Amino acid sequence: MQPHDFWQDIHPPSTFDRQPAEGHRGFYPAEFEDGRQLRLPIRELADGEHALASLIINQASFAVEDALCASLAEKVRAFAPEVVVGLPTLGLTLASGTARKLGLSRYVPLGTSRKFWYRDDLSVPMTSITSPEQLKRLYLDPRMLPVIESRRVLLVDDVISSGRSIAAALELLASCGVRPVAIGAAMLQTDAWRDKLAAIDPQWPDRVVGVLRTPRLKRNDAGGWIPIF
Predict the structure, then answer these.
(1) pLDDT-based confidence at 135, cuts 50/70/90?
(2) Which of 76, 71, 96 is nearest to 86 (CA)?
(3) What is the separation of C-alpha 121 from the centre of its chain, rounded to a whole number of angstroms?
(4) pLDDT, the chain, mean
(5) Between vectors from CA 166 to CA 202 and to CA 73, what angle results, nearest 5°?
(6) Which 3 state secondary structure label does DSSP give 149?
């Protein structure tokens, strides 16, 4: 398939083999809770022996985006969130759509671009697995403080992998006196994030909700990719 074909269609359950004998080639079929499948491109890591399945939600079709937001909204509804806070950049798409599905009138976007009215005390340093060498700062617009204070906050990102971005957001919200009731994501990529969040608070891993789950992949002797856990 062509690179631009990824993230465009959701397929019925069992359309693709979850454990092909030769290993996965070109894509990994991530599954919704009801068994529907979404083809994700396999991104080879620098060591040449391992890879990850990739989701870029702002390149997905509206149908895929809508399905991810709807599924996440249903999964977090039990936490009764009153406001959704989204992480930049790709998490903003998911946060906006999830807030709509929850029947909320707005969401609160965090940002990495400093506006002149922002305050340094409402920011923290942040790195991510997709740009590990780029040190950014994560900001909360001061005007949004009244929107999240004393509210049941749902923190949303598109993909949780290393947990570094979520950890930065938790630090930023904590500086505002806000503790989210839950953390939501379109995809939980491996379980590497669990230790990072558990080091902040042992309860956090149990308050993370994901629509899709994908493993780390290892190249096999046939040149395909097999899941490792």
Answers:
(1) confident
(2) 96
(3) 26
(4) 95
(5) 95
(6) coil
